[in-house]
Structure formats: C-alpha cells, structure tokens
Design brief:
With 365 residues, the protein is an alpha/beta fold. The chain contains eleven helices and 15 strands.
Amino acid sequence: MTYTAGIIGTGGIAGMGILGMHDAEDIGQKKVRASHAGGYDATEGIELVAVADVDEEKLDRFGEAWDIPSDRRYVGHEAMLDAEDLDVVSVCTPSYLHADHVVDAARSAADPSLVWCEKPIASSVTDAEEMVDVCAETNTELLVNHSFRFTTKLQRLRDLVQDEDIIGEVHSVATQFRMELLRNSTHLLDTLVYLLDDRADTVSGYITGENEAVDSLEAAERVDDAGGGGFVVMDDGTFVTIDCTIPRAESSMTLQFIGSEGKLYLNNDDGEWRYWRLEDGDHVEESLPGIDGAWTWDEDYRDAFANAAGDIVSVLDGDVPNPSTGEEATRSLEIIAGFYISHYTGGQVSIPLDRPLKDVTITSW
C-alpha cells in the first residue's frame, strides 16, 4: 500500500529552502530535496498529497514546485485536516505553533497514524508534554525531526557507544555549536542525549541575547531565542559543558567525550571524527568500527530526510519502533529552558521542571 501525507506550513524546511544551507536566491522559490517534501518524494510507499498554509502566495508557490493539485492546497491547517484522510501529517510551522498544530492533527478527522513534527518539539516544556500526552491518547505516533538521528553514521556511533561500550563509562563531554539555542542548538543537544541515552538532572546557564537570524531573516520582531550555554549534569553524573554562542560563519559543531575506556572527538562541520582507545594509561588512536569516513553536512544531512521518511514507512508498517519520540525530544528542550531560567534567576535548575518553570516559553521562528 501507499501511505498518504499532508504538510502544515509551506516554508523552508517543508520543501522550499533553508537559510544557511541553500542559495539565498533560491529560498522560497525552488523546491529542495533536504526537506519533508523531498523526503516523501524520495521514498517508496508514501506520497505527499496535500498541503496547508495561511499564506496563499507561499501555498501556491509550494504547490506548483511540488506538483500538488490546486484543490488539495488548503488555506489554513483546519481545512486540510477536515477534508483529507491522511496517514501522516508533517508540521513544518514555527516552533511556537507546533503544539497547536500537532494537537489539532492528532484529534482531527484526518486521523493520522503519525505526526512528523519539525524540531524543536515546542517552545515550552508544558507544550511538549501536552503534545506527547494527546498523541498517546489518540494512538498517534509523534516523531520529531531531530534529523541527525536519521543519519546512518550517527546511528552506528550510538551503537558503538551504548552497545559496544567503546569509551566505557562517560565522565565528561565538551560541546560547541552556533547560536541560537532553540533554532539551531537543539540539534547539538539532541545528539548529546541520543548518544548518552540519558536525561539532564541539573542545569546552569548563560544567555547572550544575540540572535543572528533577526538580520538574516529580515524579521520585523525580535524573539527570545539567542546564543547561550552553560553546564549540565546528566542523570548518570556525566558533566557536560555547552557553548552555543558562536556566529554561524565561525562555528563548528564539535563534541568531545571522555570515558573510562577511551575518548571521541566529533566535528560535524569539518567532517572529522576521531576515536582513541585507552590502553595502560595511554590513548591509542583507532578507526571507528563500521564507520567509513566522518559525518558531513553535504552527504549525511541531506540524506536524513529521505531516511526519516523511510523510517516513517517502517514505523507505520510495524517493523521498527519510533526512532525519535516526543519524550526524547523534550530532553533537549528541558536543557534549553533550564539555561534561560538559570540565567534570569541566577541559580541552578533541577530537571524535570516543575510548574510554573515548565510553562516558560521561548519564542523563535
């Protein structure tokens, strides 16, 4: 059978280009493959049949680019959810709208079996938890597009760290990535919790107040989302430093893991992954078993959307479990919210957040 999919939001990540990844003159004008629509188009067994947006001009431009019939281009997501019978709904709207759109989709007449929501999961932990709860109540899979999880090299690396224990007990992790925390650094933080298979316990943070996207997106309004970082103590005692204050043009996404049996250095911008095994007090460099070459943006990230769409088909077929659940996506959001709360209160923050702290909302695009 072929599953049917609809998209809410016809902006960049839906299929029309992403700032910093595609040529500026093409963004919003041409279809791009590293997107939800591109993932569906590259995958057998699923077909994009409908789209919705509140902006009719954007809606029609997307519909023409991706060959969506005019009668299946809907002004407003409610119209699509009322008219269509869909197996999958993609939510590709700004993060502050994710909760409304995921909840509406899960409860709608369209009755999707799965919602593929863009990262970050939401703008507040309360919203994220509501999304998880409603999807559980309606028997809807909530799959969050932390796209690094859908790259085969990172999946293999997680197996090496978790199942084959190549670095042993992880003691310390140092990370760096570009601003802003919600819009960009959620990738870094999800990679952290994915590889550690752990949750934050204590957070202490600093917020710079700087947001490069204000100028890049020609935004009329400022948002809370900004550069920042701090330290995190995970549930198992691993100590993590996070620096996401760096301008895009100067940044590299780096993670360094120090464990009882070895260490890892990962650089996802320069494509350098290195591994050292600890032997008699000396670190001996070796290749990573089963990983040919390092992770790169051009090769691995661009394939992530097709991989995610393929995983969606497998989840719907009942062949694999959800590889990126809402509960797991909330772990990175908890850290970001913790940084903000810590900065503005001048104290450390314990996870899980209690009310009213989990209601703190961080606006972004």
